[in-house]
């Protein structure tokens, strides 16, 4: 039995990183799933109102990405994409956990601080997802719960899901 390949996760900080995030997203959402490039590359990409993460293979090639957006009304996990050949390694889970750790450790950031609330005596930030229907179980295994009715987003049914992430005081 061969060992799983090595991967690393990093916050996207350079123009090259951002281009790699977009390349992976276009490959998965536009080329593979048929969403329009105009819908995939949205107005948030042009702003600093998000943090993107990359997972790279041992050669340094980006094979997955996820985006964290802090809006005035919510903190949202968006654009989780893993290249098809790498989906068998649990990299979606790795990226979601990296995003959650970032949220937990950066609650004092100007864009996150307004979202901190107390639930059952713990300070938390609620992270929201608009999940595609086929991956609801994936997010459920990570602790996200369905809220509200299913809805259309970009021509496909989606389900809102949330999870409270405990923040480091």
Number of domains: 1
Biggest sheet details: 9 strands, mixed
**Shape call:** globular
Low-confidence stretches: none
Report, as a whole number of angstroms, the end-to-end distance.
43 Å
Structural class: alpha+beta
Order of helices and strands: EHHEEEHEEHEEE
- Please indicate the percent range of residues in DSSP E strands (runs of 2 or more): 35-45%
Q: What is the radius of gyration?
A: 16 Å
Individual helix count: 4
Number of beta strands:
9
What would CATH call the class? Alpha Beta
CATH superfamily: Gcn5-related N-acetyltransferase (GNAT)
Mean pLDDT over all positions: 92
Which fold name is given in CATH as the topology?
A: Aminopeptidase
Helix amount, in percent?
Answer: 25-40%
Would you identify the CATH architecture?
Answer: 3-Layer(aba) Sandwich
Commentary on this structure:
With 169 residues, the chain is α+β, with helices and mostly antiparallel strands. It has a single domain (7-166), classed as Gcn5-related N-acetyltransferase (GNAT) (Aminopeptidase, 3-Layer(aba) Sandwich). Helix content is 25%, strand content 36%. The chain has four helices and nine strands. The protein has helices spanning 15-32, 37-40, 91-105, 136-141; strands spanning 7-11, 50-57, 62-70, 75-82, 116-119, 122-132, 145-146, 151-153, 156-166. Strands 1, 2, 3, 4, 5, 6, 7, 8 and 9 form a nine-stranded mixed β-sheet that branches. β8 and β9 form a beta hairpin. The mean pLDDT is 92.
């Amino acid at each position: 039995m061969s060992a799983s390949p090595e991967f690393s996760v990093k916050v996207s900080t350079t123009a090259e990183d951002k281009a790699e995030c977009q390349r992976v997203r276009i490959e998965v959402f536009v080329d593979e799933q048929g969403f329009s490039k105009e819908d995939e590359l949205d107005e948030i990409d042009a702003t600093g109102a998000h943090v993107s993460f990359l997972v790279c293979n041992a050669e340094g090639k980006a094979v997955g990405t996820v985006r964290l957006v802090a809006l005035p009304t919510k903190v949202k996990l968006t654009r989780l994409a893993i290249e098809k050949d790498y989906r068998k390694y649990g990299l979606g889970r790795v990226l979601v956990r990296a995003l959650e750790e970032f949220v937990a450790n950066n609650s004092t950031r100007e864009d996150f601080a307004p979202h901190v609330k107390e639930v059952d005596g713990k300070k938390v930030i609620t992270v929201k997802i608009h999940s595609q229907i086929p991956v609801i179980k994936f997010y459920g295994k990570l602790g996200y719960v369905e809220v509200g009715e299913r809805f259309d987003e970009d021509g496909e049914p989606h389900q809102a899901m949330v999870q409270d992430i405990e923040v480091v005081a």
